[in-house]
Amino acid sequence: xxxxxxxxxxxxxxxxxKVADTISDAILDACLRQDPDSRVACETxxxxxxxxxxxxxxxxxxxxxxxxxxxxxxAIGYTHEGDGFHADTCKVECHIHTQSAxxxxxxxxxxxxxxDQGMMFGxxxxxxxxxxxxxxxxxxxxxxxxxxxxxxxxxxxxxGKTQTSVEYDENDHVVGIxxxxxxxxxxxxxxVEELRSYVREQVIAPVLENYGFKVEDVAHIYxxxxxxxxxxxxxxxxGLTGRKIIVDTYGGYFSHGGGAFSGKDPTxxxxxxxxxxxxxxxxxxxxxxxxxxxVQLAYAIGVAEPVSVRVDSYGTGKISDEDLTALLRKTCDMxxxxxxxxLQLHTPIFCDTARFGHFGIENRPWENTDLAVExxxxxxx
Length: 381
What we know:
By secondary structure, the protein is an alpha+beta fold. The mean pLDDT is 95. A hairpin with an 8-residue loop joins strand 10 (292-299) and strand 11. The protein is built from 10 helices and 11 strands.
């Protein structure tokens, strides 16, 4: 019989799209650091020797956008001569103007409405300790371990990708890991076979072990399967903010509303609403009210309360999905202002999310399970 496989991928912060995300969020953080009420919608494009920053920013902060961008690129590791993209020598263009006054009418403190219409999804399941789907969690953990190795090994370069295929049984329980793929940019003096051995031992094996698996039990492992990966980063592919929305969430395991996160201040519910949906879904699972949950929120621009809230427990709920939804409505303030207060979103924490992941990462306020006890008590379970 055909195996029941689900695959998720992830990319390092040196991937061109993630470089763009990181710069956009570094600019957001720089604004919030001086002015917590900054309104930011920042888009970045990177390509060979060029970084272009565009968007709408209304803030009291005084920010050198070019310097912020160069610092972000430097922190990622693009500091090697001859790689086609360098923090100190690439051209940086800034095309920033203020936020639309029409949007501001609905998001000011008096109105407190959502910064745009749209729907957001958050999910959680009990496949991993962080209550994330295993394919996404493994792919993210592999990328973050690979990123640490890139910082330590001078023959590695910042661009990289991982992919994990997990086998499930007919009841959607994890059977094992079928395939792991890792590709990483490297210098010309790093022979491919040596690199493959290094990645297998230093990246794949310890990450799998942390999740209770052995590298020997994986049916297929591919490391730099095309061979050399010397030309990479923005020199190898143009990067844009917001092009890795599935990487940023659940690897396709749960639904996605289509809105990107990076470069957006928290009045933009594409970001804050998705964080809140994750918080609510995770607390439902942490409370033991279901083993898998997806929460959908939807908003109208300039309106504070969500126009809809929906929980789907995939048949695993100890109470009905309608009752789970009612519990969330009773315990959570889902207005943009309420979400910002609850999840501390006026603080400059966002560049770190672009670099190392939004969900399933410790010390993110939306990863807290402080609501679980109250939910369980109200459910009478």
